[in-house]
Design a protein that fits this description.
single chain, alpha+beta, globular, CxC1-like cysteine cluster associated with KDZ transposases domain-containing protein, CxC1
Length: 171
């Protein structure tokens, strides 16, 4: 099961997310203006089903109704709204991209410790009055989201670096 999920992330989901992630970075000025984004828009004629996803942010926990159809996966809708899913197809939890970016940069400077980070975030949110229904698996889910967000960042950079290099060789 883990190997199949890894393949799905690596071969299907991450390549699909690259243009949406790039669009998001451009639209929000590198995540500075994330609040200006509206709800994820549906750009097809499918009848979507609504999937409820809990979003972990720095200062809140919110439930988001994500439109999902055959043309648009939950992961795409979540990334377009500034969050990253903890599972490739039917996530119940997503993490704000700014939280993941902070953790990604933090773990470049200290030893990675998903347990300490997710427990601290959960404790801070709890003292603010927010309750997570996913406490038992928060560490694993947060670790999953952080791992695949890192892959998305790296693959996105590699994609555009290759495109630029291709343009340089044609000039």
């Amino acid at each position: 099961k883990r190997a199949a999920q890894w393949r799905r992330w690596d071969l299907e989901i991450i390549p699909l997310l690259i243009p949406h992630y790039s669009w998001l970075l451009c639209e929000t000025k590198s995540l500075r203006e994330l609040e200006k984004l509206g709800s994820p828009a549906q750009d097809c004629d499918c009848v979507p089903r609504i999937q409820k996803v809990t979003i972990m942010r720095f200062s809140s926990v919110e439930d988001m109704k994500v439109p999902v159809c055959e043309c648009r996966l939950a992961a795409v809708s979540l990334v377009c709204s500034g969050a990253f899913p903890c599972a490739p197809l039917q996530p119940s939890l997503a993490v704000d991209l700014r939280v993941l970016e902070f953790a990604f940069k933090l773990f470049l400077n200290i030893a990675p410790n998903h347990t300490a980070f997710s427990t601290t975030l959960e404790t801070v949110l709890s003292t603010m009055g927010y309750q997570l229904n996913h406490q038992n698996t928060l560490r694993r889910r947060f670790g999953n989201a952080l791992t695949w967000y890192g892959h998305l960042r790296n693959r996105s950079k590699a994609h555009y670096r290759a495109a630029l290099e291709k343009m340089r060789t044609t000039i």
